[in-house]
Amino acid sequence: MFKRQTEGSVICTSCGVLVGVRDETCYNCGRRNPGMWGYGPALRRLGHDMGFVPFVIGATVTLYVVSLLLSGMNMQTMLSPSTPILFLLGASGTIPVFEFDRWWTVLTAGWLHAGVLHVLFNVLWIRQLAPAVADLYGPGRMVIIYTAAGVVGFVASSVAGLYLAGVPIIGGGGFSVGASAPIFGLLGALFYYGRRTGNSHVREAGLQYALFLGVFGLIFPGIDNWAHAGGFAGGFLTGAILDPMTRERIDHLAMAVGCLAITVLAFIASIIDGLPVVMQ
């Protein structure tokens, strides 16, 4: 999968022109090491041939199943992982972030879910929205948006829980999990794309879905509205930084792999740090 190319031509990771795989700088844009040590083609295949979208969906479902198995398959936790297991794996919110200093959980919480309907509806939204964002921004930039939106969403939720604890609807989350924050980030990115390109259909679709889900969150209890709002803002801002009017570069695919690698490290840190707490 990550076989290195040692001869021939590759596409510059910055400007997209053909350069020699051993060239030190790109003759067109001046980028140093335009072939990324020969690994540029492998990263391009990772983004387009293997697909980040199936990976996001598969990893989300797998982590839900793992959390169920670790919780024990009894009648009380048959479809809902236990709170200690979610804490162990990387639930975020005011309690983990501020009381236990588990700040890295803003990376992991978006991959965890508290129940079968929770994961089912979120996976359906990911399946609908992630391919659309990948088509407009590129699969690598979709992963960057997904990761950044989750971080911003769970930071917002944790901070709101610290300062607005006990306030109905806008009180933030003591414990928070779910892909809703990054999903709202995908909607924010779609909304920005519509504004940037003048595509009213995409802009209105992104805004209408966000408003619909936002109203749903205000009506029903137990919804982390700060994670939703923060996720939308994070996706909008990340979409603006990445600029959908420019082509996706191999640099973006490398950054996407980096986002996934950092998230894996965050899961490892969560388990190592959380085991003593859960075992007490």
Task: Give the helix/strand layout.
Blueprint: E1 9-11, E2 18-20, H1 40-71, H2 83-89, H3 94-99, H4 105-108, H5 116-137, H6 139-163, H7 180-197, H8 200-219, H9 225-242, H10 250-279
Antiparallel strand pairs: 1-2
Helix pairs in contact: 1-5, 1-6, 1-10, 2-10, 5-6, 5-7, 6-7, 6-9, 6-10, 7-8, 7-9, 8-9
The largest sheet, given as strand count, sense and whether it forms a barrel, is: 2 strands, antiparallel
Which CATH architecture of the largest domain? Up-down Bundle
Morphology call: globular
- Give the full name of the CATH homologous superfamily of the largest domain: Rhomboid-like
Structural class: mainly alpha
Poorly predicted sequence stretches spanning 5 or more consecutive residues: none
Helix content: 55-70%
What's the CATH first level of the largest domain? Mainly Alpha
CATH topology of the largest domain: Rhomboid-like fold
Strand content: under 5%
Radius of gyration: 20 Å
The number of helical runs is 10
Please trace the helix and strand order, writing H or E for each element.
EEHHHHHHHHHH
User: What's the total count of β strands?
Assistant: 2
Number of domains: 2
Give the overall pLDDT as a whole number.
82
Query: If strands are numbered along the chain, what order do they take across the biggest sheet?
Result: 1-2
User: How far is the N terminus from the C terminus?
Assistant: 42 Å
Can you give a write-up of this model?
- The protein is mostly helical.
- The chain folds into two domains: 38 residues, no CATH class; 229 residues, Rhomboid-like (Rhomboid-like fold).
- It contains ten helices and two strands, in the order E-E-H-H-H-H-H-H-H-H-H-H.
- It has a two-stranded antiparallel ribbon with strand order 1-2.
- Helix 1 runs parallel beside helix 10, helix 5 crosses helix 6 and helix 8 packs antiparallel against helix 9.
- It is globular and about 60 Å long.
- The mean pLDDT is 82.
